[in-house]
């Protein structure tokens, strides 16, 4: 802009010289040339002065402007970082990432996350996250019968809740830790904000917490009942069980002939889920009789008298007395009679062997030797190994 101003001034001065009359003398020519020279010098001076003044101003302004720019940019970046921190959330992660995180949480961690907010509560109490934990922890001892009893229990709880309109006491997430047996998680949750919710009583999470707390008695079977009493070696009996979180063991209730027997401190490895749904006082319908042959592993129902419930006893199919036991010549599998052997007893014991009719087998026996009921053939090596691990250290009488 300044350059343009200087040029205009010079042009005006020069143009005025052209407006006069033509100069004939040498003095007029000299004045004319002098005026042109002065305009050029003035223009050069002004341009030089402006350039030098600008450098001086720039040198004075740099130390001030640079720190201001740095401070401004630093302050704005901090403000942006704070705003980003305030806006960032776990729920901003992609759905697949969240699912991967939740699937790796333990039951205790899921309970803690469920107390953070409504969105996390809905995710962390969903059945698909708890199915894996249920299977890993309780799959070996919980069968179809136990699940049916839980559904009945949940339905009864729901009906009683709906009927009591004045109290309206649903199962709240705050009460989870009245059920949760691990004390190390409770204080952390209780210090958090009071996020309340209604947990469906028939959810898998509710079942898991009820089992862990010992509040839900469930049906299962116990190997070698009554602490391995000699009269129950290599047997498995139905019982109602409750978990004790303090000792990581179970309490069992047996119901023989009208009186209730209890047993404490039962380890996990002595329990199993019932392999069939047949109640302990009902004869099991045998569907394997025509398939039995020597060497097969079996379980058979047996009870001391008709007032007792059945227990399942381990045995093997033996050879008939008329058979020499050589496989190539054995025809025991085609005979109507089947020999069952219980080799934990000595050869002279009355409990060592029994004979059943594969075509007409029902309950067989008497008051002296007990009554033999239904039979199941063991096909899985895992079941057979489980029985062999409990083999007594000495032969029984």
From TrEMBL:
Superkingdom field: Eukaryota
Classification via SUPFAM superfamilies: F-box domain (SSF81383)
Domain F-box: 87-133
Annotated Pfam families: F-box
UniProt-listed PROSITE patterns: FBOX
Name of this chain's protein: F-box domain-containing protein
